[in-house]
Design goal:
Length: about 375
Amino acid sequence: MNLDVPTLLVVLAIMSQIAAVSLVTIWVQRRSDRHVLIWALAMQVGAFSCVLLVLRGVVPNWLSIGVANSFTFVALGAAWNGARAFNGRAARWWPVLIAPAIWLIGLQVPAIADSLANRIALSSVLGCVISLALAWEIWANGKDRLVWRGPFAAVPATHAAFLVFRAIAALTMEVSTDIFQGGPLIALGILEPILMMFAATIIGLRLSDERLKNVLKRAASIDGLTGLLNHGAFMDLARARVERTRDDGDSITLLLFDLDRFKQLNDRYGHAAGDAALKAFSAIVKRRVSDKDFVGRVGGEEFAALLVGCGTDRGRQVAERIRADFAGHPVRHAGHSISATVSVGVMTVSGQKADFESLMDAADQALYAAKRGGRDLVFLAAS
């Protein structure tokens, strides 16, 4: 089957233009997704490149060879910056100019300028480097665990592998001096980007949608003031983890906290001071627990922490440190130094005895025993 090179270039230009317009439309609806706009720019520059390539013989060679291929490298560089933006990193545009500069300098060398095979080899090497940088940015620099990161990173990685093959083939096979008569190698070199661009657009949008859903899900489960789990999210996650304890045999310790005399604090210093106390306490708790533990704000001034793999002794130690930290560091607000304390109830279960409702009830009884005992205390529930 013969693949017509000009037709493939036209198809690639049209697909790139459609992708650019589609991405801009998505960005208009989600202005915070700056990476989508940068990827749209990459597609638009790619479309310009294809138009210049298909005009070979109509426009001067410095446009259809020099500028056209430079635009291709700029498009890949823009895609790399889009990935940086997706990862929350600042765009860096000066590296994008390195490959076009090398390309334009290379064209001043007769051995490259007068040989289609050598031009293909050079452009393939430059494109391979940028594609690998793009794949690395997508895969290695993300701080989340999005399912679609892997498939998305595989697209530029696969493109890089193809470019290595194309460079070797160009230097070892007989290649025509006319790009439009270059045979299967030239045609495949255009067909492959069509497939990669289509895959990148689809998978990139799936990746963006996946992260958006995660952000919305997180927003629905996080307390806006403290950044901890809200009541519903904590209860659901803690209940599921306690039920799993019946099978894995881990010890689970629940700490229930209640800030002492919180209403009086609000009445005396104002609700903004109360919010400052809640945030200060939340920061202390987050410092004292591990990443595998669950911490939530389960009421107005009530908090809970589920410590995984934690026995009674360590649970009591953690509770005491949190209590002491909060009592020993007055809350600073509006020029006031506000002393505040917290009461804590502690309960530990393990194995087949693990039951979430019983765990909550026992820790709650211990908490109120601490309140009745004079506040600013840690009480252990009877096991």
